[in-house]
Amino acid sequence: MSKREDYITWDEYFIGVALLSGKRSKDPATQVGACIVNPLNKIVGTGYNGLPIGCNDDEFPWQKKGDFLDTKYPYVCHAELNAILNNIGIGLQGCKIYTALFPCNECTKAIIQAGITEVIYLSDKHAAKDSFIASRKMLEKAGVSIRKVKVQREQVILSFNEKDV
Ligand SMILES: O=c1ccn([C@H]2C[C@H](O)[C@@H](COP(=O)(O)O)O2)c(=O)[nH]1
Ligand SMILES: [Zn+2]
């Protein structure tokens, strides 16, 4: 029997882990996941957008509009920052980060300061917004490579039915 040929690529695997991490998010509007990978292709951190430890998901607001303090924006810790903070306890110099959404300016600062040298994203839907223009500018100045993830398929389906294993 010859080897299986339709296995997923490294890019598909790591962006898949980022997307799966995002499925943990309680944000009703936007679920973002991120996955940090070291130069040996080992996963060293994952994260999703969520409230800080100790802040109850049911007590804080999730809305987008209204007074600033009544929205999710001051409270949610972004996926990329969580992935950095959740790392397995190593330096992240030379690592790459896979993220569902191109990182905002705040996450970008953390990415650069952590020593991450490549950002691989799936969606750049906010590219025209100031925060994301600032991100690109900082990443380019800091010499961090940026690229859209390369995928060879539209989707990967996961089954939790034991009969499918
Ligand atoms: O770099 C980023 C930018 C945003 N997020 C999170 C933060 C929020 O939970 C949502 C954005 O909210 P909208 O519904 O698009 O207004 O995405 C992130 O994790 N990383
Ligand atoms: Zn961010």
Automatic annotation (TrEMBL):
Signal peptide: none annotated. Residues 9-146 form the CMP/dCMP-type deaminase domain. Coiled coil: none annotated. Keywords: Hydrolase, Metal-binding, Zinc. InterPro entries: APOBEC/CMP_deaminase_Zn-bd (IPR016192), CMP_dCMP_dom (IPR002125), Cytidine_deaminase-like (IPR016193), dCMP_deaminase (IPR016473), dCMP_deaminase-rel (IPR015517), Deoxycytidylate_deaminase_dom (IPR035105). PROSITE patterns: CYT_DCMP_DEAMINASES_1, CYT_DCMP_DEAMINASES_2. Its cofactor is Zn(2+). SUPFAM superfamilies: Cytidine deaminase-like. Pfam families: dCMP_cyt_deam_1. Belongs to the cytidine and deoxycytidylate deaminase family. This is dCMP deaminase family protein. It comes from Niabella ginsengisoli. The lineage of its organism: Bacteria, Pseudomonadati, Bacteroidota, Chitinophagia, Chitinophagales.
